[in-house]
Amino acid sequence: MRRRPDRPVRPPRTRTGPRHHRASPRPRHRFRIVVPLAVLAFVVSVLLTEGYTTRTFSGDQEGRTGQPATGLPREVTGGGPVVDTTRDRPSTYRVPDRTVVLSFDDGPDPVWTPRIRAVLDRHGTPGTFFVTGQQAVRHPGILRDVIRSGHEIGVHTFSHRDLSTQSASDVDRELALTQLALAGAAGINSSLLRMPYSSTTAALDRADWSVARHLGGKGYILAFIDQDTKDWQRPGARAIAEAATPSAPGRGAVVLMHDAGGDRSQTAAALDDLIPRLQAQGYRFTTLADVLGTDSLTSPVDTATLWKGRVFVAAVTVSGTAMSVIGVLLLVVGSLVLGRCALLLLLARHHARRRPRHAPGPPVTRPVSVVVPAHNESLCIAKTLRSLAAGDHPVEIVVVDDGSDDGTADIAESLGLQAVTVVRQPNGGKASALNTGVRRASHDLVVMLDADTVFAPSTVRRLVQPFADPAVGATAGNAKVGNRRGLLGRWQHIEYVMGFNLDRRMYDLLRCLPTVPGAVGAFRVTALRDAGTMSGDTLAEDTDITMALHRAGWEIRYAEDALAWTEVPASLRQLWIQRYRWSYGTMQAAWKHRHALVERGHAGHFGRLGLPLLTVFQILTPLLAPLIDLLTVYGLVFGNPLTTMLAWTGVLAVQTVCAAYAFRLDGESLRPLWALPLQQIVYRQLMYLVLVQACLTAVNGYRLPWQRLKRSGDVVLPPPLTARER
C-alpha cells in the first residue's frame, strides 16, 4: 500500500503563485542587480591585482653581455660597478681592495631568503638584497626580517622587466609601484637600484645608457657587478663559491647571486664555504652604501606614503587569499565538469544498450486523456491539436482555456476535431488549469503538454508504454526544439539534446528523475492524487509534482523515443525570463521537498541521490563554471596564452564529444554543432547570470511573478535524417 506524502513544506519567503502575486519593492530588485555586479567587480579586481603582482618575468637571471655601443662615457664603461648619474657628469665607484659586496637579486623568497640571511647572520656578514615589488608585497614579513638583521635593500623593479625595452612612463610606473611596495612592506624607500638583466658596466649599450640617465634623473644610484656566479644555473656549491671569488687576488668585487627564482640551496651552501675562506684571506664584507661613503641608501617614508603602501600590500594579500580560494573552487568545478561529462557518457551508453524500450508485460493500448492548458495561445493551439489528432493511439483531448482573451478556445472549437473538449475557466494559473483537465479526464492515464508543443504521431503511444509496470507513476518524454532556426535556436537545440536529454538518461538509470517536462509527460491519475495534484507553490510545477511523486513512492521513467517539438524563446529577453523562472522554480521545488533527504524507501532514495545530483549539477556547477572563463581570460593576459588556449580547447573538446554522442543517441544531425564554440563563449555566460540572479532572488525572498512568454507559432517537425546525415 502506497503512503501519501507528508503535507507539503513551503520554503520560507519563497512561495510563488499565479499572476496575481505582487512584486517586492524596488530596493530588493536593485539588490539583486547590484550584488552580482559587486561580486564580479571583486573577482575581476582580484584577478587584475594578482595577475600584475605575480606575473613571472621572462628570460633567465643572467645579465646581458652584448657589445657596448659607441659614444658612451669611458669613465662609465671602464669604471667601477657603482654608477652615479644623478649629476650632469656621471661618476663611478669601485669596491676597495680586499672588500666584497655580496648582492642577491629577485627576492624576497619565503624559503630561500631566510636561509641565505641565516648564513650571512651566522658569519656576521652584511648582504645587499635587490628586491622586486612583486615579491615584497607578497612576503612583507621576510623583507622586514632582512632589514632587522642589518642588511641593505635595493630596488630591482616591480615585475623584473627589461627597462631598456620599456617607455619612460612604463619605467616610472615600475619604480613607483616598487617604492609603494617597499613603503607598505617595510616603511622605507630606497635610492639604490639594479636594472634587471644588467651585468658589468662594460656590457652597457646605448639603450641601457639612456635608461641609466633617466634613472639618475629620478635620484637612483645604479649597481652593476664585477663577478657573476650564474648560480641560477645550479652548477654546484663549489663552482658558485669559485665564481664569487675575486678574479685578481686582493681585488674588491660586487658579486651577483640570487635568493629567489628557484632552488637556491647551492647558493646558501656556497656562502658557507666562501665567507670563511675569504675572511681567512683578509677580505671584509660590506654594503654598497659603505662603498659610497654614506650611512644608508634607504630612508623612512612619511605617514601618507606609509598608509598608501599598507593599503597596497593589504590589497595584494587579500587577492592572494582570494586566488587560493578561487584555485580550490576551480579544481572543484573542473572535476565536476569533467566528472559530469564522463558520468553522462557512461550512463547514457548503458541506458541506450541495456534499458528496455518498453516495460515488461503486454503493451498499453487503452485510451489516454490528453490535457492541454492554454492561456492566449491562439498562434499555437491549432497546430498542437492537429498533431494530437493525427496520433496512432486512442485519445481524448481536453483543452483547458485559462482565461484567454485572444480567442484561443474559439479556435480550438472551430477545428472540428473529434474527441476534443474545450473547458473554459477564469485565469488561475497553469497548475489550476492542469488540475481542471485531470478532473475532466475520462481515463486513468493522462498526458500533459504545453499548448506550444507538437507531437509526433507515435508520441502518445510510446509515452504510455512504461505504465505496463504498475509501479510507474509518470513518464517523461523527449522534448526537442521546434524552432531551431537562427543562432539562438541552434544554441537551445544543442542544450536540449546535450544537456536535458543526456541528464534524463542518467537520472532514469539511477531512478531519481527530478522533472517530467511540461512539454511532454504522462501521469497515472492515482499517482497524481497520491502526490497531491499540481501545486502553485512553485514556478516549476512540473518539477514540483515529479518530486512529490517520488516522495509518494512512485517510479518515474524516461521514454526517449516519445518525441515532442516545443517552441523556445526567440529573443534573449524572452530566454532570460524563461530560464530565470525555471531556475528559481527548481530551487523552490528542491527546498520544498528537502525532507526527502531523511525519508525512507523510494522517497529517501530520491532525496539522498536525486536532490544532491540536482544541486551539484544544476546549481553548484553552473554557479562555479564562470571561473573557467574568467581564468581563461586571466591566463591569456597574465599567463601563457598557448597553454591557456590548449586547456580551454581541451575542455571544449570534451564538451564536443559529449554533444556529438548525445546527438547520435537522439538521431540528430551533427551540423548544428558548429555553433557549440559560440555557445560556450556567449550563451553559457547568459545562463550563468540567470542562475546567479535566481539564487539571489531565493536568498532575498523575492516573490517572482509569473511572466508569460511571447509565442510565434513557428514550431515545425524536422524532416527525417538521411543515412549520410546520421
Structural topology:
Elements: H1 26-54, H2 74-77, E1 82-84, E2 91-93, E3 99-107, H3 112-122, E4 128-131, H4 133-138, H5 140-148, E5 152-155, H6 168-186, E6 188-190, E7 192-193, H7 206-217, E8 221-223, E9 227-228, H8 237-244, E10 253-258, H9 265-280, E11 284-285, H10 288-292, E12 298-300, H11 303-354, E13 368-374, H12 381-389, E14 395-402, H13 408-414, E15 420-425, H14 430-440, E16 445-448, E17 453-455, H15 459-464, E18 472-481, H16 487-510, E19 521-524, H17 525-531, H18 541-551, E20 555-566, H19 572-592, H20 601-624, H21 626-638, H22 641-665, H23 676-700
Parallel strand pairs: 3-4, 3-10, 3-11, 4-5, 7-8, 9-10, 13-14, 13-16, 14-15, 18-20
Antiparallel strand pairs: 1-2, 1-8, 6-12, 16-19, 17-20, 18-19
Question: If you had to describe this structure to a student in words, what would you say it looks like?
Answer:
This protein is α/β, with parallel strands linked by helices and 726 residues long. It has 23 helices and 20 strands. The strands form 4 sheets. An 8-stranded mixed β-sheet has the order 15-14-13-16-19-18-20-17, sandwiched between helices. Strands 3, 4, 5, 9, 10 and 11 form a 6-stranded parallel β-sheet that branches. A 4-stranded mixed β-sheet has the order 2-1-8-7. Strand 13 (368-374), helix 12 and strand 14 (395-402) form a beta-alpha-beta unit. Helix 5 crosses helix 6. The radius of gyration is 36 Å and the shape is elongated. The relative contact order is 0.11. Mean pLDDT is 86; it is low at 1-29, 56-63 and 721-726.
